[in-house]
Amino acid sequence: MRLFDLFLRRAGVDRNSALTRRQGTSRLTLECPRDALGDVRKQVCSDFGAAGLNVSQFQIETGRDADYASACITVNCPPELRPELMSQARRLQAHPAVRRVHFGTSARSTNAAVAA
């Protein structure tokens, strides 16, 4: 196993990220007012669970603006449920309290924003 890990490192592959991709983990980052974050979190957990998507982590960070917060949501999503994840992201974008939804770990991510 150590030889295999050495091979991966020399090839420029991070073993942990390769395993994460194989398991189908995605990250969404959303921005909303701090006072609405509780309601948005409840909606995310209930809607994603009903769609068969498992929210494994929900991290809250202070936004650039003091009134806003950003939440990084880690979702276990097998490839066959990817369209459902995109549908849920569009629903989140349509939520009146949500200002922005991105795929990736931050708003400065190079990944595209979800189009409504």
Describe the structure.
- With 116 residues, the protein is α+β, with helices and mostly antiparallel strands.
- It is built from 4 helices and 4 strands; from the N terminus they run H-H-E-H-E-E-H-E.
- It has a 4-stranded antiparallel β-sheet with strand order 2-3-1-4.
- It is globular and about 50 Å long.
- The model is unreliable at 106-116 (pLDDT under 50).
Distance between the termini: 45 Å
Secondary-structure element string = HHEHEEHE
Beta-strand fraction estimate:
25-35%
Q: Any low-confidence stretches, pLDDT <50, length ≥5?
A: 106-116
Structural class: alpha+beta
Q: Count the helices. How many?
A: 4
Global shape: globular
Strand runs, count: 4
Radius of gyration: 16 Å
Order of strands across the widest beta sheet? 2-3-1-4
The average pLDDT is 79
Report the helical percentage.
Answer: 25-40%
Largest sheet, in brief, is:
4 strands, antiparallel
Provide a quick synopsis of the model.
It contains four helices and four strands.
Which helices and strands appear, and what pairs or packs with what?
Blueprint: H1 2-10, H2 15-23, E1 25-33, H3 37-50, E2 54-62, E3 68-76, H4 82-94, E4 100-103
Antiparallel strand pairs: 1-3, 1-4, 2-3
